[in-house]
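TL;DR need structure tokens for one chain.
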Amino acid sequence: MKKNVLKMAVAALFATTLTSCVTINSGASISNDTIGSKVGEAKSSIILGLWSSKGEQNDIKKAAQNGGITKIHQVEYVDKSILLGLVINHTTKVYGE
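>> reply
TL;DR here they are.
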């Protein structure tokens, strides 16, 4: 009986460790037009809150360049937390023309 409870506790701990969470922060629209026909993205991973795989390259300017956007209508940030926040995948999305 105690072995089964211990196995269930270990399985529950393992399952919660592997779960992830996604947070989407959408910035305000810059103009009253539609959000645009183009989408640009810049991605990076942040490990232990100390190290980023792309450094400062994950910004609005880089996302706009990746999408060929010269007129920005809306900006969106998406953060996906993995392994209880040990790794965070950060994406900057830019919508525009």
